[in-house]
Structures are given as C-alpha cells and as structure tokens.
Amino acid sequence: MIKDPSFLLWYPSSTRRKYNPYRRLVGSTTLIVGSGFFRCLVEPEAAAAAPSGAISSFCFTAKMSGEEEENAAELKIGEEFLKAKCLMNCEVALILDRKYEQLQQMSEDPMNQISQVFEKSLQYVKRFSRYKNPDAVRQVREILSRHQLAEFELCVLGNLSPETVEEAIAMVPSLKSRERFHNDEAIETMLNDLSLIKKFE
Amino acid sequence: MFFHIVLERNMQLHPRHFGPRLREKLVSKLMKDVEGTCSGRHGFVVAITGVDNIGKGLIRDGTGFVTFPVKYQCVVFRPFKGEILEAVVTMVNKMGFFAEAGPVQIFVSNHLIPDDMEFHSGDTPSYTTADGAVRIQKDSEVRLKIIGTRVDATEIFCIGTIKDDFLGVIDDPGAAA
C-alpha cells in the first residue's frame, strides 16, 4: 500500500475537466512518479475520497502490482522474473557462443546478422564468466541449487563468487532476511565448494 | 542479470511466403524483428533460443496478411534496482564515469564514488586514491550496485554506485587465480 501526497498522476487530458477525474482512475492506471512508470490499482473508495479540485497531487491508497518498487536486494524483481529461469554469465556465454557458431555456419558474413546487443552481451559474458568449462558450470549450478536459493540469488552468487560470508551477504542481502541459513557456516561451506570448482577447473 | 524467458508475439506474414517453408520464414522474421530490441518490461532481447509454438494464423481483413501468435524462448538482459553486477568502464570524466554491462550503460556520478578517490585529468582520465593503489580508468573492471534505472523507448540507462562495502575496482583476475 502506498499513501503519498506527492504522487503525480497521469490521465488523458480529456478527463481533466470532468467532475472527479480520479473516478476514472479506478482499476488499473499508469502513474508517473519521478522518472519511473508504475502500474497501479486504484481502489474505488480512494478515488471517491480524492478532492475533485486538486489535479497534480492528492492522497490515495493504491495497491502496487507487478514489477514496480523493484529492489533486487529484497528480491522484489516482479513475479514474472522471479519465476523465470535466471542465467549466470558463464551459462549465457555457452548459449551465445553456440548461437554464434550456428550463425557462422549459416552465412558467410555473420557480423551482418548480429545485433549490437548480441555482440555486446557476448563480449561481456566472455569477460566476466568465472567458469569456462561446461562441466564446471553445471557443477556450480548444482551446488548452489542445494541451498534453497531463489534463481536470482543463485545467479548473483555464481556471477560474483564472493570469498567471505560477509561479502556474500553484502552481495545478496536477502540471504539473511529469509530463514534458510541458520548460521554462517552453511554459507561458508557453499562458498568453499564454489572455490574448489574454480581451483580444479 | 540474464534471464531465459518465454515471450509471445503476433507476427504478420505476407501471403507470398505461404508454402512448405512458412515456419522457417516466420522464425527468421521473428529473429530479425525481436533480437536486439529493448522494452522496459523485459529488458534487452539478446538471442532467441527456440520457438515453442506457432498458433493458428488469422487472415487480416482487407490486406491478406496473416497474423500468427508465436511463443518463443529467449535470453534477455534486464537490470534491476539494487542489483550488484560487474561492468567495464568505458569513459571517465570529472562528472563521474560510464560503464557497460552487456548492452546496458551505467553512469556512476562522482558523488557515488568513494570520497578518497580523486579525479585526475590527463591522457587517460582516472579516479585514483591518494596513494595511487586503486585506479579507475577506461577498461577497468568495476563491481557496482544499480540504484536507479531509466527506461527509454529503445534503451535502458542505469545509475550506479561504488560507495558501499565490497564494491569498486575488481582485483586483476589473473593475479587472484
């Protein structure tokens, strides 16, 4: 729930001169707050209570839905991405590499077909993937997935491979907030397992 | 962060492509249309990895074009507020520095660089500590936290910070190994 008088509302200009413009907002509405766009559900009583004179600011209660107010530190990344499969940089490198090879086989001039986004992503993941060997990549995911981590947390740990428990919690603050790790030892074992893979890769 | 997600899109196809190679044509058109695009909701579409399902086509009145609903899997890159990631520095100036993480640009203002690092202009402008031990210049690798995102029609810009624990220049990976 948000209760904030400083919210700036956007609605079609044709509704502006009607009796109570906020009535029109009942249901799903786009809000512009600062530089962000939010989808908002406005409750009927909130709209009815809104003063009809004020246009740019008023107080109302609305239920946030979807991806707004996102904060990866608290694992608020939206339903859609929370459920989606996350990829570590090393996994993306494997996928994009194979795709690049396929494109090379299909046409003589692969650079022509490749978008800038693809090229930049490939360069990035190659530079920042900790594990190059496909087997090592699989092992990393296996080890991390033993610990009831959310997909997003798993990948952050896999990408940044923190060395100490303190660092791991700083990188993924949500590790502490949920009661999966009763003590720091569990985290430490996990980090040790990861560094072993890197060593023997 | 990179994600593997399933998206759906309505593809319009000209009748001249109808024939035994219709599916191939649809898939190649999908790749051309979608790969490299960016939306605020899903981020950058990096690559299509597979097509799950192509639904029944619907003939458009008047034009003869047919619309097919296509479900496809793709790799997307979507930055989140609060996310910590690694990036490559691309430009340094007195306002701060720009870094790139895959397709996304991240700006780190000099207010969000630790106070003990100072800007030095010259051939390669850099932010350096007084003792010269830590140095941020073009091509440095930094670990940063995203604190804000701005979504454009075709791009996402981020604001980052390195003023926090465990953030900043990454040690030379060669030396650590």
UniProtKB/TrEMBL annotation, chain A:
The keyword Transmembrane does not apply. Residues 79-201 form the RNA polymerase Rpb4/RPC9 core domain. GO terms for molecular function: nucleotide binding. Pfam families: RNA_pol_Rpb4. InterPro entries: HRDC-like_sf, RNA_pol_Rpb4/RPC9_core, Rpb4-like, Rpb4/RPC9, Rpb4/RPC9_sf. The keyword Nucleus applies. Signal peptide: none annotated. SMART domains: RPOL4c. Its main location: nucleus. GO terms for cellular component: nucleus; RNA polymerase complex. This is RNA polymerase Rpb4/RPC9 core domain-containing protein. It comes from Aristolochia fimbriata (White veined hardy Dutchman's pipe vine). Belongs to the eukaryotic RPB4 RNA polymerase subunit family. One of its GO terms (biological process) is DNA-templated transcription initiation. It is found in: Nucleus. Keywords: Nucleus.
From TrEMBL, chain B:
DNA-dependent RNA polymerase which catalyzes the transcription of DNA into RNA using the four ribonucleoside triphosphates as substrates. GO terms for molecular function: single-stranded DNA binding; single-stranded RNA binding; translation initiation factor binding. It comes from the Eukaryota. CDD domains: RNAP_II_Rpb7_N, S1_RNAPII_Rpb7. This is DNA-directed RNA polymerase subunit. Residues 79-156 form the S1 motif domain. Belongs to the eukaryotic RPB7/RPC8 RNA polymerase subunit family. GO terms for biological process: positive regulation of nuclear-transcribed mRNA poly(A) tail shortening; positive regulation of translational initiation; transcription initiation at RNA polymerase II promoter. One of its GO terms (cellular component) is RNA polymerase II, core complex. Keywords: DNA-directed RNA polymerase, Nucleus, Transcription. SUPFAM superfamilies: N-terminal, heterodimerisation domain of RBP7 (RpoE) (SSF88798), Nucleic acid-binding proteins (SSF50249). Pfam families: S1, SHS2_Rpb7-N. Residues 8-64 form the RNA polymerase Rpb7-like N-terminal domain. The keyword Nucleus applies. It is found in: Nucleus.
